[in-house]
């Protein structure tokens, strides 16, 4: 990076000229620029973007010219245009300064009027450089030139000619930084660069024909199609030129000519890139027109049609080139109707964002946030969506497309004007950065005042009374990047709202058909319904309707990036209608953009939460962040349990007490699920929170029913009663769709017989189960006692002594295995502890379980694998019973516990994950295998929880495709909805590897 000047000089008398190098004063004396008559020269030099750089180049040109310098010196004193062009160029570009030093007489190109040549004149310049002449017998559209100069001489001649024309353009472009010359508009620069590319490749084609065919006729028609920025005539100073070749016939000769054109062009001018051809770099370099048509009809992807938006015949057989554009053009305008249009567009957007390293995103002009690509991508998408019905949108350039979109009412007129200004500003900065060394770059300098001050001066920035040129540049970068970052809101959603709410009475309103097309392209499967929701939300002239009209553009933008924007918009409408009388709701969304974004992400991802939030809307208040972190994480499970117990204790009626507990559970589930979807909680934290709230509800419900019974009896309960958590409840590893597996244990009070105690306890247990299982729109509260002795055939409640007798005499292998996860969760804590001490002798027997028991467990596991998987389920993707799923991992851990827990007290643990940690620490299972099991269990649990969140009801089977799988992938951390295939592959890969560990353990 060339260091621009600072205000301080180490050379007396030159600091005010912006010269800081020690040799500056001597150089000025050598030039003879030290008198009063030289002040205009010195003043102009001081205004160069880098005065030192310009002065050094002038000294080198003087040395190269020798006696001829006097003529240039005289011209600089009288020709203001030359002065501005030369000083601006030399102070901005080391590469073009070197070119003028090597060819000092070319300074004359910048003198006088120095007008830009026309396209025809450019053709003459480049063709003359290689002594090219048209072949006879061709019409104007099929003219072929053959060069008289080939090889290295041709490349050198073309390179010099191109640098001459580039220097002329850049000098005229930069002159306003020095003298008050007219500013060359962005579009004039970009179009002239594209004309130069066309003319340059016309000459390169002439060299290629002469090289390949010699003096003989080539016998082939070859058209060169410009793509990308060159096709749109918006080329950069330094850029690849994307091309596609069409030939009749597409034979070896045509391929050799195309290859030679690319070699000559890339050596002399710029990289000539044919990667946008069918099949990319692996495809044939040259195809016939029919071959191109066949490919695009059958194989092309959405991005390839998007690339065709810019296709333009640039040189060669222009008639064939026009035939190419005419044949493929209509296909572009039906691309938005393709089934995969939306996911491919979303994938393209994501790839653009991911191409830039995080540390460069604020400095990248092309691909970063608020960048050129943001504008270009959005404009092209709108063209694809509406261009089929509106031919006025079938233009190539980004600026022209914005103008057409505004004229058609698809983009607000002010938005189009502002975005055009931002786009041209960013392109100006890109041009200046590239000119410096003629290198392809799109990255702003790091936070370096000197480097940025140079850029400000080169980009015509002047002090504005508040800021110096550096301050003006920084403010403009910030303002324009911020404006472009809002482009998706403004370009995609404001016109939609104008069509239903008329936010801008002077706006040209898109038709309902156009609004439906746009919603479909943004991912809405039922765009007519979506438009109806927008109409309903903004209906009337009420203040709430106006606020909704202001909010909805950004809300819709977020929803469009969720797995199910249709469901999300419907859920938002229902929520907004339910909250109609709550002023805080819209105020919170209006004043808290982060809250609005989080709410839309949740509503577009989860049917589970969409229902919960209707009944627990206050949870939305927790979507804000406090100074210490997310408020969603401020609630502790212990505080939730205390709140549930306190709320239930206020009511004597058990049904009302349980209703109060349900309400707090509902809010806690909404909080946990919200934090889960937003990526704030990991799997163990989610499972622990869900288990804690279940335990709290059980405790509160049991307490309420026991208190009611004591009031009815008029005396204390005849027995103590405890609830033992089993399965995932016992391991505190519940998911959103889990039942509560429990056993009820009672013990008679003094003087009460067992029969009376068990009868009373059974009544209590039945009432608790009934009240909790009352039908509700809330997530169910099913209490399952199927793991009790004798299973569903045994009594629901037993005394502690009865349990002891049963387990000591009759316990089967599966019952012993089930006890591994037993823990006391509610009721009499002392009785629960005594029960656990009693079963420790059963589940952790001295010497470990017998080999007969191990064989029985293996037999049962094999039977589970073969019989329990639901009909039609895919064993590769069933999260509970599939290969490497939850059951596989848990059975493996439990088998190792049964075999080793008697000798390793740390294995006396009901948690699967914590037990895996112990198995690793004690080396009972090697670390690699433990990690495979841990990863599989965590992933399967995450996927199973996500399935409930997406569908709103329990399920264990991952689908093979569709919105449900997209939602699961998104919640599971895969981000974009189009990564479902990658997520499914990852899931099957992880569980397959875990299954190998399971088979090794059960095969011992």
Give an overview of the whole structure.
- With 1004 residues, this protein is mainly alpha-helical.
- Among the domains are: 341-485, Up-down Bundle (Four Helix Bundle (Hemerythrin (Met), subunit A)), CATH 1.20.120; 496-604, no CATH class; 852-1003, Four Helix Bundle (Hemerythrin (Met), subunit A) (Up-down Bundle), CATH 1.20.120.330.
- Helix content is 59%, strand content 6%.
- Strands 3, 4, 5, 6 and 7 form a five-stranded mixed beta sheet that branches. Strands 10, 11, 12, 13 and 14 form a five-stranded mixed beta sheet that branches. A two-stranded antiparallel sheet has the order 1-2.
- Strand 8 (625-626) and strand 9 form a beta hairpin.
- It is elongated and about 125 Å long.
- The model is unreliable at 1-12 (pLDDT under 50).
Question: How much helical structure, as a percent, in the residues?
Answer: 55-70%
CATH class of one domain: Mainly Alpha
Instruction: Compute the number of helices.
Output: 42
Q: Looking at the chains present, what oligomeric state does this protein adopt?
A: single chain
CATH T-level topology of one domain: Four Helix Bundle (Hemerythrin (Met), subunit A)
Mean pLDDT: 89
Low-confidence stretches: 1-12
């Amino acid at each position: 990076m060339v260091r621009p000047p600072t205000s301080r000089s180490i050379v007396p008398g030159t600091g005010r000229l912006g010269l800081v190098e020690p040799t500056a004063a001597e150089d000025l004396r050598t030039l003879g620029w030290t008198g009063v008559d030289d002040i205009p020269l010195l003043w102009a030099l001081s205004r160069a973007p880098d005065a030192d750089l310009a002065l050094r180049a002038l000294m080198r040109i003087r040395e190269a010219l020798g006696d001829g310098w006097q003529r240039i010196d005289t011209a600089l004193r009288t020709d203001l245009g030359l002065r501005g062009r030369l000083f601006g160029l030399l102070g901005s570009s080391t590469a073009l300064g070197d070119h003028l030093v090597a060819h000092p007489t070319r300074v004359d190109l910048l003198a006088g009027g120095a007008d830009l040549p026309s396209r025809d004149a450019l053709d003459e310049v480049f063709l003359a450089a290689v002594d090219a002449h048209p072949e006879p017998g061709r019409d104007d559209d099929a003219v072929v030139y053959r060069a008289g100069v080939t090889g290295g001489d041709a490349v050198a001649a073309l390179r010099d000619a191109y640098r001459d024309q580039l220097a002329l353009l850049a000098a005229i472009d930069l002159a306003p930084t020095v003298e008050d010359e007219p500013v060359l508009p962005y579009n004039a620069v970009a179009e002239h660069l594209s004309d130069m590319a066309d003319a340059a490749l016309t000459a390169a084609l002439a060299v290629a024909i002469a090289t390949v065919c010699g003096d003989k006729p080539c016998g082939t028609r070859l058209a060169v199609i410009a793509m990308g920025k060159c096709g749109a005539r918006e080329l950069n100073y330094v850029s690849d030129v994307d091309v596609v070749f069409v030939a009749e016939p597409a034979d070896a000769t045509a391929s050799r000519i195309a290859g030679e054109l690319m070699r000559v062009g890339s050596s002399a001018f710029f990289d000539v890139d044919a990667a946008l051809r069918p099949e990319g770099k692996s495809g044939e370099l040259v195809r016939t027109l029919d071959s191109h048509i066949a490919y695009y009809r059958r194989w092309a992807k959405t991005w390839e049609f998007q690339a065709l938006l810019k296709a333009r015949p640039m040189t060669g057989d222009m008639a064939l080139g026009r035939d190419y554009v005419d044949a493929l053009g209509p296909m572009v305008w039906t691309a938005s109707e393709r089934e995969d249009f939306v996911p491919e567009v979303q994938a393209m957007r994501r790839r653009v964002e991911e191409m830039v390293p995080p540390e460069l995103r604020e400095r990248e002009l092309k691909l970063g946030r608020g960048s050129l690509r943001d504008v270009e991508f959005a404009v092209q998408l709108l063209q694809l969506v509406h261009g089929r019905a509106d031919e006025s949108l079938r233009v190539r350039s980004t600026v022209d497309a914005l103008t057409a979109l505004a004229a058609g009412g698809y983009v607000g007129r002010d938005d189009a004007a502002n975005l055009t200004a931002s786009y041209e500003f960013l392109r100006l900065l890109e041009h200046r950065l590239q000119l410096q060394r003629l290198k392809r770059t799109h990255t702003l300098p790091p936070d370096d005042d000197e480097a940025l001050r140079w850029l400000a001066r080169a980009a015509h920035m002047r002090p504005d009374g508040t800021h110096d040129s550096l301050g003006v540049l920084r403010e403009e970068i910030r303002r324009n990047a911020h404006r472009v970052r809002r482009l998706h809101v403004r370009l995609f959603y404001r016109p939609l709202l104008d069509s239903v709410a008329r936010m801008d009475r002077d706006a040209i309103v898109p038709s309902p058909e156009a609004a439906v097309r746009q919603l479909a392209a943004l991912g809405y499967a039922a765009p007519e319904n979506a438009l109806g929701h927008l109409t309903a939300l903004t209906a009337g002239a009420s203040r709430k309707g106006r606020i909704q009209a202001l909010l909805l553009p950004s809300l819709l933008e977020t929803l469009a990036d969720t797995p199910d924007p249709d469901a999300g918009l419907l859920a938002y409408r229902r929520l907004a209608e339910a909250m109609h009388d709550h002023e805080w709701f819209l105020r919170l969304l209006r004043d808290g953009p982060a809250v609005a974004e989080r709410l839309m992400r949740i509503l577009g991802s989860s049917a589970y939460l969409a229902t919960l939030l209707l009944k627990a809307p206050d949870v939305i208040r927790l979507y804000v962040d406090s100074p210490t972190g997310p408020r969603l994480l401020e609630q502790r499970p212990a505080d939730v349990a205390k709140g549930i117990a306190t709320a239930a204790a206020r009511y004597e009626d058990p049904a009302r007490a349980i209703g109060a507990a349900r309400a707090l559970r509902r809010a806690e589930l909404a909080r946990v699920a919200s934090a889960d979807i937003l990526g704030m909680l990991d799997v163990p934290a989610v499972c622990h929170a869900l288990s804690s709230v279940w335990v709290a509800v059980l405790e509160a419900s049991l307490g309420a029913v026991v208190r009611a019974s004591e009031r009815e009896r008029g005396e204390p309960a005849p027995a103590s009663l405890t609830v033992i958590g089993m399965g995932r409840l016992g391991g505190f590893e519940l998911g959103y769709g889990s039942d509560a597996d429990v056993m009820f244990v009672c013990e008679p009070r003094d003087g009460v017989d067992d029969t009376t105690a068990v009868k009373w306890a059974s009544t209590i247990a039945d009432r608790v189960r009934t009240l909790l299982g009352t039908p509700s729109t809330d997530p169910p509260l099913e209490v399952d006692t199927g793991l009790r002795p004798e299973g569903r055939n045994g009594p629901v409640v037993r005394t502690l002594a009865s349990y002891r007798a049963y387990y000591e005499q009759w316990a089967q292998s599966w019952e012993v295995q089930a006890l591994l996860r037993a823990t006391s969760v509610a009721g009499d804590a002392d009785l629960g502890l005594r029960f656990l001490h009693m079963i420790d002798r059963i589940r952790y027997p001295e010497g470990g379980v017998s080999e007969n028991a191990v064989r029985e467990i293996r037999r049962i596991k094999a039977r589970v694998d073969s019989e329990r998987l639901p009909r039609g389920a895919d064993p590769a993707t069933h999260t509970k019973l599939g290969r490497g799923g939850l059951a596989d991992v848990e059975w493996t851990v439990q088998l190792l516990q049964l075999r080793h827990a008697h000798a390793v007290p740390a294995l006396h643990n009901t948690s699967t994950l914590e037990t895996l940690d112990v198995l690793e620490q004690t080396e009972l299972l090697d670390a690699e295998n433990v990690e495979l099991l841990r990863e599989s269990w965590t992933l399967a649990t995450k996927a199973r929880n996500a399935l409930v969140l997406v569908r709103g009801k329990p399920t264990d089977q991952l689908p093979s495709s569709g919105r449900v799988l997209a939602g699961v992938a998104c919640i599971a951390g895969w981000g974009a909805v189009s990564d479902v295939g990658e997520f499914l592959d990852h899931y099957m890969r992880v569980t397959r590897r875990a299954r190998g560990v399971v088979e090794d353990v059960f095969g011992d």
